[in-house]
Specification:
Strand order of the largest sheet: 2-8-7-6-5-3-4
Number of strands: 11
Largest sheet: 7 strands, mixed
CATH class of the largest domain: Alpha Beta
Number of helices: 12
CATH superfamily of the largest domain: Type I PLP-dependent aspartate aminotransferase-like (Major domain)
Distance between the termini: 68 Å
Length: about 375
């Protein structure tokens, strides 16, 4: 047998960057948590899920397609991209569909970011913005919020010749605030001479009712390096199927397609998303319920003395002195909310907007 050399150095197989990344904490499965707490049913208000649920037409489409689950899906999500293009008024080749917006962020990083490139990211914000940059070997340049608001001027001042991309999240997760039309155009115009990519994440746009909220897709013709991200997880209630999409210039989408896996969006997700687009009534009903219940929850929380930034999303970021204790109290009552400390806002709870009965339970407990 060969002699072992106990003094040989240990081979390192993992990239050093992995040690700096914390796994995303999605929490325990609801069923396991309910058993642990000894409660019959938990309502999750921690993941900003659709309180109404998916359209019945979506459920029917999934059932019809289930017998074909043994077949690979359309590698280009052709029918879905055509339906989206018709809805948005853009060509199908301006759209790339992904396994949730999270994958689309990875595609942008793989296609654009070289080691040492800088990416300006609002801080705090959605954690995957930072993760994909670090995995690509880029350098995150954090742009602190101004209170709960995105500091657009501050972001612009951080842009250098090394900046490959700027990330704008509007409505912001987890604050719920928006970047209004004037400041967004000012940022895009200021970068216009030789712009980096501007990734505009509009995951929660369908819950906005502020008339000064800009439509990112309408800006694409004027700003060719703008990339708009949207999702079916929130308004369409397809969080369990993971379908998101990017809209941008054909050249940009071509680059994303070059790094995209060939069958990245599953068959059931594609047909479900098409069915969701076709059921405009359910889409509007979801929006109406969220806007009504957000107003109700905001009014009643304010009446009880709680403070929070005005939200344009389907959640509220509530400041509360005893956040940890309040979170546990809500948990014992069968309501799961997000600890603000985990998303950059200690002393806060991020609470998804629920249906009226759920919101009343929350108010009675908090």
């Amino acid at each position: 047998m060969p002699r072992s050399d106990y003094n040989a150095p240990v081979r390192s197989v993992w990239r050093p960057v992995i040690d700096r990344l914390a796994p995303y904490d999605a929490g325990k499965p609801l069923e396991a948590l309910a058993r642990e707490l000894g409660v019959d049913r938990l309502v999750r208000l921690s993941a900003n899920e659709n309180p109404v649920g998916a359209s019945p037409r979506v459920v029917e489409a999934i059932a019809r397609e289930a017998s074909r689950a043994h077949l690979y899906p359309d590698g280009g999500s052709t029918r879905l991209r055509e339906a989206l293009g018709e809805r948005l008024g853009v060509a199908a080749d301006q759209i790339v569909v992904g396994n949730g917006a999270d994958e689309l962020l990875s595609l942008v990083a793989w296609a654009a970011i070289d080691p040492g490139d800088e990416v300006v990211v609002p801080q705090p914000s959605f954690e995957p913005y930072t993760t994909v940059v670090e995995l690509a070997g880029g350098r995150v340049v954090p742009s602190p919020l101004a209170g709960y608001e995105t500091d657009v001027d501050g972001m612009r001042r951080l842009v250098t010749p090394r900046t490959k991309a700027v990330v704008v999240c509007s409505p912001h997760n987890p604050a719920g605030t928006i970047v209004r039309r004037g400041p967004l155009l000012a940022l895009l115009d200021a970068l216009a001479a030789d712009p980096p990519l501007v990734v505009l994440d509009e995951a929660y746009r369908d819950f906005c009712d502020d008339p000064d909220y800009p439509d990112g897709v309408a800006l694409l013709a004027r700003y060719p390096r703008l990339v708009v991200l949207r999702t079916f997880s929130k308004i369409a209630g397809l969080a369990g199927l993971r379908v998101g999409y990017a809209i941008g210039a054909p050249e940009t989408m071509d680059r994303l397609n070059r790094v995209r896996a060939p069958y990245n969006v599953n068959r059931l997700g594609q047909v479900a998303a098409v069915a969701a687009l076709e059921d405009r009534d359910h889409w509007e009903r979801t929006r109406r319920v969220v806007l009504e219940e957000r107003a109700f929850l905001s009014r009643e929380l304010a009446r009880r003395g709680f403070t929070f930034p005005p939200s344009q999303a389907n959640f509220l970021l509530v400041k509360i002195a005893d956040a940890a204790e309040a979170r546990q109290r809500l948990l014992r009552a069968g309501l799961v909310v997000r600890d603000g400390a985990l998303v950059g806002f200690p002393g806060h709870l991020r609470i998804s907007v629920g249906t009226r009965d759920v919101n009343e339970r929350l108010l009675a407990t908090i």
